[in-house]
């Protein structure tokens, strides 16, 4: 876990800075800044569009009485994708745009669901607890 956090907060920003400096040397300072602003705006609009679409699908699943687990995972991934798209950088933009592609997002969501599936269990209250009114206070 520590190595993952170290990678996320130390090595990725260093790689991002290096790539931005190299890009700035190739195409110039202003075009690099323009590219960063453009990807931020494009990313925010894509995240909004994909998020609203996923929200509609979640509401549809709930209306039909089905748990929207897959759609909730995809919604969380859209939020993460939107955040990293707003963050300046080339690697984060590539990752964020990849999360905006529905097929890629669905495959990642399936892997996440599979890896998290064994970590959770369902607890059902017994009938006595379900009908118990111990939490009611009469005034």
**Strand residue percentage:** under 5%
Count of DSSP H/I helices: 6
Overall geometry comes to elongated
Radius of gyration: 21 Å
Order of helices and strands: HHHHHH
Mean pLDDT: 84
Distance between the termini: 51 Å
How does the helix and strand content classify structurally?
mainly alpha
Low-pLDDT regions: none
Number of strands: 0
Helix share of residues?
over 70%
Q: Can you characterise this structure?
A:
It is a single chain. The chain is an all-alpha fold and 139 residues long. It has a domain at 35-115. It has helices spanning 2-27, 29-63, 69-86, 90-99, 102-117, 127-131. α1 crosses α2. The longest helix is centred in the N-terminal third of the chain and has 35 residues, at 29-63.
Provide a concise account of the structure shown:
With 139 residues, the chain is mostly helical. It is 79% helix and 0% strand.
Supply the key terms.
139 residues; single chain; 6 helices
Q: What order do the helices and strands come in, and which of them pair?
A:
Blueprint: H1 2-27, H2 29-63, H3 69-86, H4 90-99, H5 102-117, H6 127-131
